[in-house]
Amino acid sequence: TQLLEQSPQFLSIQEGENLTVYCNSSSVFSSLQWYRQEPGEGPVLLVTVVTGGEVKKLKRLTFQFGDARKDSSLHITAAQTGDTGLYLCAGWGYALNFGKGTSLLVTP
Amino acid sequence: KAGVTQTPRYLIKTRGQQVTLSCSPISGHRSVSWYQQTPGQGLQFLFEYFSETQRNKGNFPGRFSGRQFSNSRSEMNVSTLELGDSALYLCASSPGEADTSEQFFGPGTRLTVL
To answer: Which of A21, B8, B26, B42 is most exposed, with the fewest beta carbons within 10 Å of its own?
Structure first.
């Protein structure tokens, strides 16, 4: 199993702040995915990054795939309360391997 | 399109019992995967079915089993329940054509073992 380590595990910030969460592995992945999970729901795909060094933007969210395709980061600009949730990174091996997630709480 | 549905949403069982969970994938999706989610271990892959055949299996004991029907609906069964089986069980479907497919998750079944 290819392990994905996410940090920080928990993050509590106020609306308007910026934040970055990290996803690291010692393994090379052909692609990495980021999902967001809200309480009582299943994870929902935010983005897939495929090329080393790739940067993708989704409104206030910026995703980066490391040059060596072993790590990724998610940066949120001017966080809103609606960004609250569990952020999961996942990489394909023979199955989709998930990190344990970063639990983000954004307060007014 | 309707999303992935899972039944039941909540379940309480006692140790030693068995349980069957059901998943209906998005129409047209042929791959169904099952995951166990716990606070300590996160999301762990159980198994994947594609066209009624188990295509991949995670590192779980044989008490965990599954099957897929011709209409792509899937069930998973856990026999001889243990306290540690308490978890959120998530089902995900995908078209199944590529290993970078987006997984579409259902809301999960919350299983509590007493």
So the answer is: B8
